[in-house]
Amino acid sequence: MIPISSVRISEEAERLAIEVIRSGMLAQGPMVARLEREFAEFVGVKHAIAVNNGTTALVAAVQALDLRPGDEVITSPFTFVATLNAILEAGAVARFADIREDDFCIDPEALEAAIGPRTKVLMPVHLYGQTADMERIAPTAQRHGLALIEDSAQAHGATIGGRGAGSFGIGTFSLYGTKNITTGEGGLITTNDDQIADRLRVLRNQGMRQRYQYEMAGHNYRLTDLQAALAIPQLASYDELVKRRKENAARLSAGLQGLPGVRVPTELLGRSHVWHQYTVLITDESPRARDEIVRLLNERGIGCGIYYPKVVYDYECYAANANVIPDPAPVAERVAARCLSLPVHQHLTDDDVDQVIESVRAVVTA
Ligand SMILES: *Cc1c(COP(=O)(O)O)cnc(C)c1O
User: Would the CB of 53 count as within 6 Å of ligand 1?
Assistant: First the structure.
């Protein structure tokens, strides 16, 4: 079996984790502070604030903006459900602008067209490890006086025009078990704004700056030192991990290019893709339907995934929710029906990658 994701914790991470365990200080402490410093530098921003997961990171980012009831956040319809749930949890209205088929991210033109009188936040999602077109989206936010939150859960270290994902607005990252950097559960928020950073730190800790001095109704959003200990060595060796993912992606593309029925993903000019997922589109030329291909690949021991099978608001549980506006998204719907993610992670050998290629070729041509 070739799994779609794989986690190996280094000896250095074990050593740091044991250090934390023996220190007797397991909750948020010096290891979290160190991770925050190193992650801020990694993204190229002044502040990183660690939180307990990527969904929390999004919720806190929206909460830090002090929106009013009825204020709208425009995001991508083609994303993990956490993006939508976080907007709702923070009490805002979720709206959607369609995606582009080349990067699977929100279309800057559709985004600008969707801006209305209640819009307060633009929330692009850097899907699969490649950033959205921030060189157009960031100026749009600025021109309209809107806040910008980048859901960077899948895009640690991705860049566009040499700038890091999460450095254009408020960046939110996930450290969940399948993400490029993982502590099982965990998250980080990045910003250059001193005031937002300060608000997030207070919000994270029950609204408390000094002990029992409450400034706002906060929450417990804290990460633990034990988790931070696992992330620090991953960050230090992240370049190697991405290099291997890039090599695997290039090998997959070389092997699948030109196969009728399969459209391989591309790294767009000026962007650095960190290949959280390698996602192909199954086109009309394929003799087999996407879902049948998934079944046959699984039978052959190739782990694969559908991220995501439907647009995010197209579920019964949101149908009667007045804070979810189902703006039409035909491109996202088409992509959702055709997308298929293949293993690309750093622990694959060349032989593994070749086996993935061979299996896809066999299953799609038969
Ligand atoms: C993983 C993910 C999240 C949520 O992160 P968790 O750490 O699982 O809460 C949010 N948005 C996207 C796009 C994700 O992939």
Answer: yes
**Domain count across the chain:** 2
Specify whether 197 is located in the same domain as 259: no
| Closest ligand 1 atom to 154 CA | 15
Is pLDDT of 31 > 90?
yes
Amino acid (1-letter code) at residue 247? E
* Residue to mutate (ligand 1; options 51, 52, 53, 55; most atoms within 8 A of CB): 55
Ramachandran area for residue 162 (φ above 0: left; ψ -120 to 50: alpha; else beta)? left
How many CA atoms lie within 13 Å of 237's alpha carbon, on the beta-carbon side? 14
78 and 227 in a single domain? The answer is: yes
- pLDDT at position 214 over 80: yes
The whole domain housing 154 covers 11-236
pLDDT tens by residue, 39-63? 999 999 999 999 999 999 999 999 9
Q: State pTM to two decimals.
A: 0.98
- The mean predicted confidence, pLDDT, of the chain is 97
Strand partners, 281: 263, 339
Q: Please check whether residues 123 and 199 belong to one and the same domain.
A: yes
H or E stretch covering 120: strand 119-123
Q: What is the SS3 string spanning 215-236?
A: CCCCCECCCCHHHHHHHHHHHH
Asked whether 228 lines ligand 1 (CB < 6 A), one says no
Q: pLDDT (tens digit, 9 = 90+) per residue, 264-283?
A: 999 999 999 999 999 999 99
Residue 6 falls inside a structural domain: no
Cα atoms found within 13 Å of the Cα of residue 269, Cβ hemisphere only: 0
**Residue 169 shares a structural domain with residue 261:** no
Q: What is the dihedral of CA 277, 283, 286, 287, to 10 degrees?
A: 120
Give the mean model confidence (pLDDT) for residues 14-26.
Answer: 96
186 and 296 inside one domain = no
Whether 307 has a pLDDT exceeding 80, the answer reads yes
Q: Which pLDDT score, from 0 to 100, does residue 147 have?
A: 98
In this structure, the answer to whether residues 102 and 209 fall within a common structural domain is: yes
CA 301–ligand 1 middle distance (angstroms)? 26
